[in-house]
TrEMBL record:
<dbReference type="InterPro" id="IPR036390">
    <property type="entry name" value="WH_DNA-bd_sf"/>
</dbReference>
<keyword id="KW-0963">Cytoplasm</keyword>
<dbReference type="InterPro" id="IPR036388">
    <property type="entry name" value="WH-like_DNA-bd_sf"/>
</dbReference>
<dbReference type="GO" id="GO:0005829">
    <property type="term" value="C:cytosol"/>
</dbReference>
<feature type="binding site">
    <location>
        <position position="144"/>
    </location>
    <ligand>
        <name>Zn(2+)</name>
    </ligand>
</feature>
<keyword id="KW-0804">Transcription</keyword>
<keyword id="KW-0479">Metal-binding</keyword>
<protein>
    <recommendedName>
        <fullName>Ferric uptake regulation protein</fullName>
    </recommendedName>
</protein>
<feature type="binding site">
    <location>
        <position position="141"/>
    </location>
    <ligand>
        <name>Zn(2+)</name>
    </ligand>
</feature>
<dbReference type="Pfam" id="PF01475">
    <property type="entry name" value="FUR"/>
</dbReference>
<keyword id="KW-0678">Repressor</keyword>
<dbReference type="GO" id="GO:0008270">
    <property type="term" value="F:zinc ion binding"/>
</dbReference>
<dbReference type="InterPro" id="IPR043135">
    <property type="entry name" value="Fur_C"/>
</dbReference>
<dbReference type="GO" id="GO:1900376">
    <property type="term" value="P:regulation of secondary metabolite biosynthetic process"/>
</dbReference>
<keyword id="KW-0408">Iron</keyword>
<dbReference type="InterPro" id="IPR002481">
    <property type="entry name" value="FUR"/>
</dbReference>
<feature type="binding site">
    <location>
        <position position="104"/>
    </location>
    <ligand>
        <name>Zn(2+)</name>
    </ligand>
</feature>
Length: 153
């Protein structure tokens, strides 16, 4: 496991301990699988991986673990891909944006609070009450852009 992956898992342990939550072995394993999928993991891919380790794993097992991880800010759902990625910063779980590379699939998490506040204010001016925001930006990461356009720098 890389240092980054170890850090994410340690942060999950700390958050669960602080909130009095139980990171069961199944929840932990689902989180580990998601952490190791930088481009996102789909629920049935998670189920396949878990079933290979534990033949009794069923879809409700995965979806309960995903619901727990989502509701506690440990992962994000990539709506456009119907996949899940680990959350690099659980304390900002409600105010984030995702940059998704269309070439390599890498997902980067941003926390542009001013953008978040501007969107809330624009919605309020329309009399709209925001309950959930999903901002996904698709394009090319720096590495893929340089690879595809080597002379543009």
């Amino acid at each position: 496991m890389s240092l980054e992956h170890e850090k994410l898992m340690a942060e999950a342990d700390t958050l669960c301990l602080r909130k009095g939550l139980r990171l069961t072995p199944t929840r932990r394993r689902v989180l580990e699988l998601i952490v190791h999928s930088p481009g996102g993991a789909k629920a049935y891919d998670l189920l396949d991986a878990l079933t290979a380790e534990n033949p009794s794993a069923r879809p409700p097992t995965i979806y309960r673990a995903i619901d727990f991880l989502l509701s506690n800010g440990l992962i994000h759902r990539i709506e456009s891909l119907n996949a899940y990625v680990s959350c690099a910063c659980p304390e900002h779980a409600q105010a984030y944006q995702l940059l998704i590379c269309k070439d390599c699939g890498k997902v980067q998490e941003l926390h542009e609070e001013s953008l978040d506040h501007q969107l809330d204010a624009a919605a309020a001016r329309q009399g709209f009450y925001v309950e959930k925001k999903t901002i996904e930006v698709h394009g090319l990461c720096q590495q893929c852009h340089v690879t595809q356009h080597p002379t543009s720098h």
